[in-house]
Each structure stands twice: as C-alpha cells, then as structure tokens.
C-alpha cells in the first residue's frame, strides 16, 4: 500500500473523466454531423422536388409564352373541323420517323425527315423549329395546303401540334428539290434536258395559277424558289413550303403587309418598297420569273464568280443577247425544239420580272404563253430598275 494511494485514485479518476469527456465530444460531433447530413439531404430532396415542380411549371409557361397564340391555334384547328388533315401525337411522329433517323434536309423553318404511315405510304415529316416564330408558319401551312388539291401542289397528310413539338406530314417526293437539278455546282446529278425543264416550268406555272385562281380563296405563296419546288419520280413539279403564304378573298388580290417576306433574289420590288406598287399575286409572278431564269442559266441570277462583269447579273446579260438577236450560247441545246423551249422560258421570265407589277402577266397568261407559239410573243421592255450596266450590277448585288 502506497503512501500516495490517494493520488493514484485521483489520477485514475482524472483519466476516467477525460475518457468520458472525449466520448461525449465524439458523440456530440457525430450527432452534429448526422444532423447536418440529414439536413443537407432533406434540403437536396426539397430542392429537387421544387426544381421539378418549377421546371414543369416553367415548361408550360415557357411554351405558352413562346406561342402567344397557342389557344388561337387550337381554336383554329377546332374551327377547321373536317377540313383540317389528320392530327397525330408527337409519339406518332417519333414512331413514323423511327426517332428521326433519316434526315432528308434542312429548311428555314425546320428539319425534314423520311417517315412511313401505318398503311405503308412514305411521307416527309417537317419538324418545325420550336425556337422560331409564334405559330404563324404552322397556321399558314395547314390553312393553305389543306384547301388545295392539285397535281402541282404538294399534299399534306397530317400534322402534330403539342408542347413537345410541331410537325407537318407531307407526301414523300423522291427526287427532292429542283435546285439539285439546275445548278452547275451539283455536278453529281444528271442535267435535265431542255424539254423536261420546260415541262417543269409549265407545271409550276399551272400550280401558281391554281393557287391564284383555282381555290375557294386566293393563296399567295411569297417564297417561290427552286428549293421550294419538289420533283416526284416523273419529275412532275410540286410547290411546297407555304410558311410565308397569305390567304385573301378570291376577288381580291392586293394585300397589306407590315414587312418584307421571301428570299433575297426572288422578292418582288414592291414587297420591300411600296414605291414600286401594291403587293399582290403579281409578287409571286416576279419570283416565278426569277426562278425560271435560274433554270435557264444553270446558276444563281447574281454570280460574282463568272469571268466577265457583264455576266454577273444573268437577267441583264440574257436580255442583251435577245435584244441584239444573238445566240444565247446555253449548253444542251440540240435542235430547234430545244431552242424554242429556251426562248419561251426566257421571254416569259423577262415579262414576269418587270419592275412594275401592272406590267407583269397573270399566271393564267404565263401558262398561255408557255403553251402558245413563239410567233405570238411580244418582246418585253427592259425590266430593270437601273439600265446602266455597272449600276444594275451594284444595285442587285447589294
């Protein structure tokens, strides 16, 4: 027994107290950590739930804000009733396109995909850009094409209008757009014979005549260009893409527009400047004329890549050739029949691109001219705003 036994007991008691204190601190830290982790977990769960709810709400709000006329479009589709084509769900669109596997092309309003209906028919499905427009292009397409039934107008089989996306289902046209067969840069494609080009120009003219006069209402397309002309297996042309179209009463033609619409190079002067006249069906006539001149020239009407300055603006160059009664020197002219087709297309086009809308023929007259004899043709006035060569080139290029 030690004389300092009391001190040993005190030391043992101190060690025990230290251990208890240490355990107590560990337990406290553990509890604090557990509470913190639990709190963080609860907060994360709440945040995820809130985010999901907010995302769902925002998605609906965003869709309705983005398409300000969402309810109007739905009302339009209801009011159209049996006149509207079949409505599909977005899941149907994914199924018929095999989840958008085969892309046919890309347009200004969205991508186009090959699809197949349940009855086996091939279709072209245009998925409209969700980030573009307020639904006007969708209404224009449904309202205009569903009113038509003509061999030279593309058929509309159905549509989809949901928050997931909007889509239009057209007949499938295997040869694609006209531009692939008229521009020299597409050298991989077989160049069409002049007789075939002439028949395509005539078919497009008949389609436009139908839109302007053959429907219950007059339809103005406002975007006639090679990209919007589709060719079937027999190269029969079909006018497509009515996203910029305007519908007006059959007896009326002049319409009001707040801004220019169309594609540069094909827009009639009065569409971007009312000084030249009123906007009407004659604006489509101008676009048609510019397009047919590109079919004749095999290139864009304005081409800075040509060798001679006088050839930069093809309509000016071709007019000079005719005015001087010179050979147009175009490739592929093999006989008098080809020459007659080419001269018809050129003279009709020059009439169509007259600066003043009142000087342009209606599409019914265009069809008559193309089907008629060259002997009955009058030589058109110079259709350009500026006759000096350099000014004409600078004006068109700018």
UniProtKB/TrEMBL annotation:
Its GO CC terms are:
membrane
Q: Which UniProt keywords apply?
A: ATP-binding, Glycoprotein, Kinase, Membrane, Nucleotide-binding, Serine/threonine-protein kinase, Signal, Transferase, Transmembrane, Transmembrane helix
Q: Where do transmembrane segments lie in this chain?
A: 30-50
Origin: domain of life:
Eukaryota
Location of this chain's protein in the cell: Membrane
PROSITE patterns of this UniProt entry?
PROTEIN_KINASE_ATP, PROTEIN_KINASE_DOM, PROTEIN_KINASE_ST
Record-linked Gene3D superfamilies: Phosphorylase Kinase, domain 1, Transferase(Phosphotransferase) domain 1
InterPro entries recorded: Kinase-like_dom_sf, LRK10/LRL21-25-like, Prot_kinase_dom, Protein_kinase_ATP_BS, Ser-Thr/Tyr_kinase_cat_dom, Ser/Thr_kinase_AS
Membrane topology type, per the record?
Single-pass type I membrane protein
Instruction: List positions binding ATP.
Output: 126
Molecular-function GO term, any one: protein serine/threonine kinase activity
Q: Has keyword Transferase?
A: yes
Where does the Protein kinase domain lie? 98-385
Q: Where mainly found?
A: membrane
Q: Does the keyword Transmembrane helix apply?
A: yes
The text of the family note is:
Belongs to the protein kinase superfamily.
Kindly provide the name given to this protein in its UniProt entry.
Protein kinase domain-containing protein
């Amino acid at each position: 027994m030690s004389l300092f036994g009391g001190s040993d007991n005190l030391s043992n008691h101190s060690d025990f107290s230290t251990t208890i204190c240490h355990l107590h601190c560990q337990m406290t830290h553990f509890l604090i950590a557990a509470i913190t982790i639990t709190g963080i977990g609860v907060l994360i769960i709440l945040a995820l739930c809130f985010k999901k709810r907010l995302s769902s709400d925002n998605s609906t709000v965003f869709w309705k804000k983005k398409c300000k006329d969402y309810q109007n479009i739905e009302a339009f589709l209801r009011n159209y009733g049996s006149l509207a084509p079949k409505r599909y769900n977005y899941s149907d669109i994914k199924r018929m396109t095999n989840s958008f596997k085969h892309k046919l092309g890309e347009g200004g309003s969205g991508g186009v995909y090959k699809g197949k209906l349940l009855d086996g028919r091939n279709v072209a499905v245009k998925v409209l850009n969700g980030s573009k427009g307020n639904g006007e292009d969708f209404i224009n397409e449904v309202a205009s094409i569903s009113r038509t039934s003509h061999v030279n107008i593309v058929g509309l089989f159905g549509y989809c209008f949901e928050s997931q996306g909007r889509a239009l289902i057209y007949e499938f046209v295997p040869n694609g757009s006209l531009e692939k067969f008229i521009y020299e840069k597409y050298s991989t494609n077989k160049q069409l014979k002049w007789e075939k080009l002439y028949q395509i120009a005539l078919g497009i003219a008949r389609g436009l005549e139908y839109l302007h006069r053959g429907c219950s209402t007059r339809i103005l397309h406002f975007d006639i260009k090679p990209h919007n002309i589709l060719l079937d297996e027999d190269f029969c042309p079909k006018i497509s893409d009515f996203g910029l179209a305007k519908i007006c009463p059959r007896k009326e033609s002049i319409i009001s527009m707040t801004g220019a619409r169309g594609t540069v190079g094909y827009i009639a002067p009065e569409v971007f400047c009312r000084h030249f006249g009123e906007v009407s069906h004659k604006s489509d006539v101008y676009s048609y004329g510019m397009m047919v001149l590109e079919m004749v020239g095999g290139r864009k009407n304005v081409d800075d890549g040509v060798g001679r300055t006088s050839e930069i603006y093809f309509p000016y160059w071709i007019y000079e050739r005719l005015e001087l009664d010179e050979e147009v020197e175009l490739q592929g002219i093999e006989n008098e029949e080809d020459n007659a087709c080419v001269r018809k297309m050129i003279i009709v086009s020059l009439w169509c691109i007259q600066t003043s809308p009142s000087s342009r023929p209606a599409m019914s007259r265009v069809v008559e001219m193309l089907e008629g004899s060259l002997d009955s043709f009058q030589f058109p006035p110079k259709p350009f705003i500026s006759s000096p060569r350099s000014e004409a080139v600078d004006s068109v290029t700018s």
